[in-house]
Amino acid sequence: MAAMIRTTVFRKFSPHTRILDGKYVQLHFSHVGRSKFTSTKSLYQESMTADGDTTTKHTNSTGDQQHSLDLSFCNAKEAYRSKTTGEIARGLFVFNMCSIPFLVNHNKTILKWSRKVLGKQLFCKIMKATFYGHFVAGEDQVTIRPLVNNNRRYGVKSILDYSVEEDISSKKAKEAEMKSCAPPDAEPLSAQPPSDEFVRQRKRVNSPEVQRFVAHEEFGDRREGVVSARTYFYEDEAKCDENLQTFKECIDAVAGAVTDGSGFIAIKMTALGRPQFLLQLSEVIVSWRNFFERFAGDRNKFSEEDFKTTLKDFGVQVTRDDRKRWFTLLDVTCDGEVDLLDWDNLLDINTQMGKHLVVPNVTTGEIQPLVASLQMEEEEQLSKMLLRMNEIAEYAIKKNVRVMVDAEQTYFQPAISRLTIEMMRKFNKEKAVIFNTYQCYLKKVFSSVKHDLELSKRENFHFGAKIVRGAYMEQERERAATIGYDDPIQPTFNATSHSYHSVMEEIMNQINQRPRGEVAVMVASHNEDTVRFTVQKMKENGIGPQDRLICFGQLLGMCDHISFPLGQAEYSVYKYVPYGPVEEVLPYLSRRAMENRGVLKKVKKEKSLLWQELKRRIRSGELRYNPDKVPA
């Protein structure tokens, strides 16, 4: 057997170690632009609108008054200044259609039969005039530029995404998932070198926490219950190479449309290799941190004496010299105590302790491998996955484009986050180029954010983050309940909001405690309360819109009443802009229809504002309003 997955991954990602032919692994995604800090005490003054709503006004460095920000987000005229009357009517039509349950529930069937009845040419024309035109920017890098440029003129930048998706059946999706989450020969993994007893124990392990990081056919179609996120299924290495090329073409599109270095692209790690590796690495990370909690308890750190006592309590037989050597390796800061940052470092330097990562089994008292090893073919595939990530990152940096690594399911996410942090270590030395994504509906998100912020501070690299609520709630809850592990999701919507706001408060505290620009974050939310909370907290913490330390993000075609008023008030705002041929983005359009059905209250407000602006233009004789011919 070859070396363990953990050793393979962290040897390649160590900030001090080169991988394969001297190349470094790197991820790419966008980061928030920054400028020198200017106190915002003189930038803000509070006023009251005629309706009693609090409005924030801004002045630029020349003293010219900018657009006021109505934090009630009810100003229809301001929200749709960038839209023609035809675009407003189209939006109203699309949202009305998304409010009809029959059309949404059967949207795939309706689209399929419409294509057959109307023919390709007429079908594409109708789609461009309706759903496609509202939610998608265009078919290629050239056709998207008018929309991207128009949005930028009104203060809204773009995150480009080539949204072509293969619409495979659920059966094929499950088959692909089960195949890709097992070794190539489909034989059970064994430890290297495994004893017969250990193999038997491994086969008998059916605890929910172990099964959490095993693929289950019942949940093999990761699209089920998910409407707001794209899903990749592993086919073969050639498909991963194809995805790599698609990401690079997207980088080219961003570089061509945005020339000032503020552009983003989004990637998913499951597009670049076998998900089996993410499962195994996630199990390593979670098991290792659970092991730390056994030592530290509620103290969050432990001394050498604590280490000795706990090993004895576990019944672990270890020599005095080995124990001292372990503790010395763990105590990276040499302060006589080990905290979680020290503990995690062992995953990087474990090769000094031996060929394998081994830990005491607290039940048997025996030393055993923490995770199964990889076969030769698997190790080669893992290396290719890391090299693809490296190539994307290097190409993005070369093109002056930033990289956001999207979050995925909790059984993949520990590995995804860890690999993204390794990329930050290497490539975020001068500015935030690589951004990790944190899902605030997870119960442990606050501790994860705090841990990574502290790590970036200790190791002197810039911290970049995208903060989201989360896209996999229903799926995660059902899987946890079925398999039997603890539900990782916050119990209520309000609990998730509180989690989101706590994370943002911690990030803003860190922004003010560190040199300006070392922490950059995107608030990716369609929730008005969260956006309002962030704007107000920015003011309280002296973080101005022009500082470009915190930006906001929403999907194209949704929440324009939030995005454009923010952008015109000089906040940094992005739209997630999908593009691709009409017939190849139908799965994306289907998910947008489902998503809007699920947030009827928000859609109701958007419809009301669109109708309000349409009537205003009719009354004022502005039906031929052209946003290109008026000052932005």
TrEMBL record:
Is Oxidoreductase given among the entry's keywords? yes
**Gene Ontology MF terms in the entry:** FAD binding; proline dehydrogenase activity
Keyword Flavoprotein attached: yes
**SUPFAM superfamilies reported in the protein's UniProt record:** EF-hand, FAD-linked oxidoreductase
Q: Which domain of life is it from?
A: Eukaryota
Going by the UniProt record, its keywords in alphabetical order are: FAD, Flavoprotein, Oxidoreductase, Proline metabolism
Reactions catalysed: L-proline + a quinone = (S)-1-pyrroline-5-carboxylate + a quinol + H(+)
Q: Which cofactor(s) are needed, names only?
A: FAD
**What pathway does the UniProt record associate with this protein?**
Amino-acid degradation; L-proline degradation into L-glutamate; L-glutamate from L-proline: step 1/2
Q: What class of enzyme is it?
A: oxidoreductase
Enzyme Commission designation:
1.5.5.2
GO BP terms, alphabetized = L-proline catabolic process to L-glutamate
Start and end residues of each Proline dehydrogenase domain = 376-604
Gene Ontology cellular component annotations, sorted alphabetically: mitochondrion
Per its database record, what is this protein's job? Converts proline to delta-1-pyrroline-5-carboxylate.
Q: Which PANTHER family match?
A: PROLINE DEHYDROGENASE 1, MITOCHONDRIAL (PTHR13914:SF0), PROLINE OXIDASE (PTHR13914)
Of which family is this protein a member? Belongs to the proline oxidase family.
Which named protein is this? Proline dehydrogenase
Which species is the source of this protein?
A: Crassostrea virginica
